[in-house]
Amino acid sequence: MKTRTSIVVLAAGAIVLAGCAQDDPNRRTKTGAAVGAIAGAVLGHQLDGSSGKWVGAAVGALAGGAVGNYMDRQQGDFEQSLASERSANQLEIERLKDDTLKLTVDSEVSFDFNRAEVKPAFSGSLDKLADVLIKYNRTVVHVVGHTDSVGSDSYNQQLSERRAQSVGDYLVSRGVPRDRMRTEGRGEREPRATNATEAGRQLNRRVEIFVKPIVEGQEQRAYEPPRYY
In principle, which of 6, 95, 183, 184 could form an S-S bond with 168, CB 3.0–4.6 Å? Predict the structure, then answer.
């Protein structure tokens, strides 16, 4: 079965790449998209459809020794692409101990009060974020919404879920594969600061994006919900 799958994928790749004419000005973009799609198809065959568990090592997973360098380069690209957002304190980038990258987005610049639609003014920042995520495709992206404690617990939970889903949907619309995306809301359960002050509540209203590497032999860990640090 593995041999047959490999032959089918290689044949599909040859056909797609052959279709990108040498004089096509968009050839590089099309070629990259085709290769990404083929790689995604191969990765898909590594999942047991009934259980959702990995079966064997995934093609394209990172060898353990290569994870640090891969995430170093991705972090550098995030920092360069989103430098203006970081200098304006709209976004933070943090490296966690398991090499996960954590990007924290201030909800004040990304959403209107009590709304879940991404502000048009923030779409450019998400475009830049999506470009880096597409470039480094050996990762799973977890979008987690958070709120302050104003309002009922159930309302805050629903708002956090809708905001996470909005960010996830936007990134997918910009080309990040949906099968790499996970979204969830955690309401008011994981505050960064006190909810007794406006400054603290503002810190608690946020969306966090965790970018977890897919490591060979530990693929399922990339899909597990991130822990709060």
Answer: 183
Contacts 24+ apart (CB under 8 A), 50-55: 53/220, 54/219, 54/220
Is there a contact between 191 and 94 (Cβ–Cβ < 8 Å)?
no
- Residue span of the structural domain in which 103 resides: 60-223
Give the amino acid at 9: V
Strand partners, 142: 182, 210
Please give the Cα distance from 130 to 180 (Å, whole number): 12
Helices (H), the chain: 2-18, 27-44, 67-81, 83-87, 107-110, 123-135, 153-173, 198-204
Give strand pairing partners of 47: 54
Q: CA 183, CA 93: separation in Å to the nearest integer? A: 19
Closest CA to 90 of 75, 110, 74, 76: 110
Amino acid (one-letter) located at 7: I
Q: Answer yes or no: are the C-beta atoms of 119 and 134 closer than 8 Å.
A: no
0.90 surpassed by pTM: no
Q: What is the pLDDT of residues 91-142, one digit of tens each?
A: 999 999 999 999 999 888 899 988 999 999 999 999 999 999 999 999 999 9
Q: Are residues 37 and 66 in the same domain?
A: no
